[in-house]
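Milestone M4 deliverable, item 7.
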Amino acid sequence: MLALTSCLALGQAQTTVGTNGTCAASPPPSSAEQTIKNIKNPSPWLSWGADLRVRNEYFDNALSLGVPSGTGIGFGNVHANEYMRFRARIWASLFPTNALTLNVRLAAEPREFFERATFDTFFQHQGPQWRYGIIDNLNLQWKKPVDLPATLTVGRQDIFLGDGWLVGDASPNDGSFTTFFDAARLTYKLDNAHTTVDAIGLMEFARPDAWLPTLGPSTSLIEPTVPLTTRPPGGAPITIPDPSLPLTLTDQNERGLILWVANKSLPYANLDTYFIYKHDQRLYDTPVPIFGDTGDIYTAGGRLTGLVADHWKYSAEGAYQFGRKNDPELNMPAAGVPSNPLLAPSAETTGARDLNAFGINSKLTYQFNDHWNDQISLNYEYLTGDNPSTKNDEMFDVLWGRWPMWSEMYNIYSYVQETRVGQTANLHRIGPTWTVNPMPKMEFSASYYLLLADQDVATRDFSQQPYVVPWASPFSANQALEGANVHVGDDRGQYIQTVLKYKFSQHVSGHLWGEFLFPGDFYVNHQLMEFVRAEMMFTF
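Output delivered:
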């Protein structure tokens, strides 16, 4: 593991604290800082910068869910993984006029796997993975177009709305390497009404090089250790020895429209309302058509946040979804292939299903307003799961919220076998978080969550996909439906997280991050799931 202990000690030694325990006033910029500023802003029409993020990550059972080796081609043989990630970015902004800004950013993240990889086309390989470089920002921003109190941004850009619960990352499959949206965004400000209106149209492609070329290939350059086997509906299994599967940003091509209205008239009751349309189009140009959905999802929701009596903060968000979704994992198999054991016969279908789902995300925080900035929060999130006895699809879709909002391990890795990367659903999450600043520039947080399933059957079970050779399901109810004698329940487990962050200077920061899940009876196996990460971030 990459150790931060010595760095923390160095950072503490350089901290200046006043006699009353607070930070001393910051001194004027040093000559070195002034030189850096001059280098980054060489002229009134140009600014630029760069950063380097170094991560060492280790996890065990988080992806395999405790499935033992020898049970199929699943993740059991690669239940533990340790690797390094080196993300480098460089960006620039050009200002041809006071109203126009051209923004561009280039990113790359090669990785080094110390054990056989669990990831994408590098599955079961060790050593360096020289992934592609990508233009992850390229947009033109126009302030006050035709003298309107608005800003128009067109092109590849980062978008984060509210808490990012539904809109935060359009490229979840590359693991925070990028988060961009290909979009046109108009932000209109009604200052007298303390209201901001965002109207966004977006078009996302699953392939990284769909409309902007990548630096280096975005497909596999190696033959898989385990040949890929597919079982087309109605046909016998076939093996593809070198499928050259693409590295994808997300699981399907996506289009969307977002209307988001935020009103901040009252400090104790800020109100956001929104309506989101998302169209998914499954990929059919891959050797094995297992990627993504086809469907139309409509989401209406609202979010209320505020500060009450200087101590209490709260946020409460809820959304309802309707539409149609054609999920290949739930379609009734064709003639000659056994029926899906996860669905009641009356619920099986060969086409799209009506979507009827909802979700809640809430937090109540008490701020002590003391010397250490102590805060205690109570969190509750509810995402509906698919009822296996109905023809409707009740699984809530988090849209573009597939990022590590509350966990780097569980709602990213552990949902892969149940849904997809970061596609959290079928969940009750409740528990406290304590956050404290024990010294200047340092933050520590600890969280505990009780995790429950809304439905004990995980209807999106990767082991039951009709397009892959199945293996033993990691979910207790799913194995019971296949005749196994296992205890069935809806207890996902007890989750614990601790995070230590430190900002050494304006240019250097780091953290130590640990997560642990003690699985409950929702899973067949109850081995501890763990995730540990050390990170250093260098910013110029």
